[in-house]
């Protein structure tokens, strides 16, 4: 057995009535990896996650978590992971600190370790100043941060994050990202489902793209971006009044479609058009167009997502 792969998913299938929700999906997740599961709504991500966490039985195939089979060794498999969204049992009459300590002890920590871990997480999620208030005084955002903190309390070997930052404000989302990266640095392995492509791009070491229950692609974010082909020229202007002129210069010089969004213009370029890019810059400078950014980069994950899922059945 390959001990580097902490999670093994092999040829799993799930059918509900006539509808096949998951078809022959396989992937391994290495120890210490953040693995992203991406796909449109209804693609099968949640069904896969529910099978991996023993909430659903697969019709075919095999899943093992840290060497334990989810069907034949369900209790041992469940001891290997924590999952966000399973912490609804927080006590409204207790403080944030007391709730964290209780969940720490439930996760096998000594009282001293639970208290230490509670302080770490209260700091990580910007709750230190409210640590000793009862939850009745908490806003919705503060409760969500506490909920996320509780899911991280036991430093689980495997952490399943099912769209953990949906609806969070950007600041809380960044706190969540930092806390997850810290946990991984300390040895945890993470499977993340998300609807935010920049989140997967930022966090995940590898991504599996699921559509209509099938695996469409798997690889690092940069591997997947190569599927789109070529590179992208990004031009950012300081004032929208220059937009039409910049679009014309880029289009006429490169003979390629120019995508315009607010003050940003992008062009997907290949090896041939790449040689013409300096001419675009020369013409913009000659026209004295104020530019805040002019860069050649890999295309965003959004482009991969759209190209590989739209219109496929």
TrEMBL record:
It is a peripheral membrane protein. GO terms for biological process: daunorubicin transport; doxorubicin transport. The keyword Metal-binding does not apply. It comes from the Bacteria. Pfam families: ABC_tran (PF00005), DrrA1-3_C (PF13732). Keywords: ATP-binding, Cell membrane, Membrane, Nucleotide-binding, Translocase, Transport. The keyword Translocase applies. Transmembrane segments: none annotated. GO terms for molecular function: ATP binding; ATP hydrolysis activity. One of its GO terms (cellular component) is plasma membrane. It is found in: Cell membrane. InterPro entries: AAA+_ATPase, ABC_transporter-like_ATP-bd, ABC_transporter-like_CS, ABC_transporter_ATP-binding, DrrA, DrrA1/2-like_C, P-loop_NTPase. SUPFAM superfamilies: P-loop containing nucleoside triphosphate hydrolases (SSF52540). Residues 7-237 form the ABC transporter domain. NCBIfam families: drrA (TIGR01188). Belongs to the ABC transporter superfamily. Drug exporter-1 (DrugE1) (TC 3.A.1.105) family. This is ABC transporter ATP-binding protein. It comes from Pediococcus parvulus. The lineage of its organism: Bacteria, Bacillati, Bacillota, Bacilli, Lactobacillales.
């Amino acid at each position: 057995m390959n001990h580097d792969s902490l999670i093994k998913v092999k040829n799993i299938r799930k059918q509900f009535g006539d509808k096949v929700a998951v078809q022959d999906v396989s992937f391994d997740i290495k120890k210490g990896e953040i693995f992203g599961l991406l796909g449109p709504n209804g693609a099968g991500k949640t069904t896969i996650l529910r099978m991996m966490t023993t909430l659903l039985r697969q019709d075919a195939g095999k899943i093992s978590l840290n060497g334990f089979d989810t069907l034949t060794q369900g209790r041992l498999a469940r001891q290997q992971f924590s999952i966000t969204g399973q912490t609804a049992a927080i006590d409204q009459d207790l403080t944030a600190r007391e709730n964290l300590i209780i969940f720490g002890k439930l996760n096998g920590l000594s009282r001293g370790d639970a208290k230490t871990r509670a302080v770490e997480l209260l700091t990580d999620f910007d709750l230190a100043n409210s640590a000793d208030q009862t939850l009745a005084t908490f806003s919705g955002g503060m409760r969500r941060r506490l909920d996320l903190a509780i899911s991280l309390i036991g430093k689980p070997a495997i952490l399943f994050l099912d769209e953990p930052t949906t609806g969070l404000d950007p600041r809380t989302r960044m706190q969540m990202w930092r806390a997850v990266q810290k946990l991984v640095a300390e040895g945890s392995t993470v499977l993340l489902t998300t609807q935010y492509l920049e989140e997967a791009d930022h966090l995940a070491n590898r991504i599996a793209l699921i559509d209509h229950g099938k695996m469409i692609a798997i690889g690092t974010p940069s591997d997947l971006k190569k599927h789109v082909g070529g590179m992208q020229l990004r031009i950012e202007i300081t004032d929208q009044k220059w937009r039409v002129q910049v679009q014309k210069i880029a289009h006429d010089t490169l003979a390629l479609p120019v995508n315009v969004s607010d003050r940003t213009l992008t062009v997907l370029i290949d090896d041939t058009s790449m040689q013409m890019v300096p001419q675009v810059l020369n013409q913009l400078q000659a026209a004295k167009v104020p530019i805040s950014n002019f860069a050649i980069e890999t295309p965003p994950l959004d482009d991969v997502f759209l190209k590989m899922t739209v219109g496929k059945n």
